[in-house]
Write a structure and sequence with these properties.
The chain is about 70% helix and about 5% strand. By secondary structure, the protein is mainly alpha-helical.
Length: about 230
Amino acid sequence: MPISELKVKTDLSAARLMSEEIADVLRENIISGNFNPGEKVNEYQIAKLLNISRPPIREAFRLLAAEGLITLVPRKGAFVLELSIREVKEIYEMKSMMESFAIRLAIHTVEEKKISEIDSVLNLMEKSIKENNFKKIQKLNIEFHRKIIEMSKNQKLIHFYESIILPIRKYQRLGLSAPSSWEVSLGEHRDIVKAIRSKNIELAEKLTREHTMRATLRVIEQLKRRKGS
């Protein structure tokens, strides 16, 4: 992607652009697919575009490297990490385990108010599907799964789940790239909520695992297509 096309929030000014804010800009562009896997992120061009010095950009690169979004190659620069089938399997296995555990912790004590909040997220997702708003669908999909985890009220579990949100977002874009998957995903979400509302632990956990497994397969299929193209 030409650096000149980098999407920058309009409220960002040169005076405010510190390393964390630069990292935010680059992170969103990487996750949204504006940078391709393996593509170089040019430090000089970013500095010129944003009219800032290069040290904060280097620090932003270090932040993104720690998050697993880019790799820093000595004397060559920063490159967007290639998407990995192995990482997909590992991340989604963790996701499945955490969500199943959250449901087991919460299902007998969760308040109807919390379940209704999840329903509201799904209603917004349904509306976004009708509007063909892919960006909003992605955001609401993450929000649905986050609320499942938050039901547990286990702060350590919530913290650990947040630590894998970034890689999930990175791969979710592939898993939901086909519009045909949107309605399927929404229907699976509603079935999970229905099982939680009826306090059927076995069914809720089963549906959650199956939902994650199908999402994993969709992402892997898209990755294989990319590698084969």
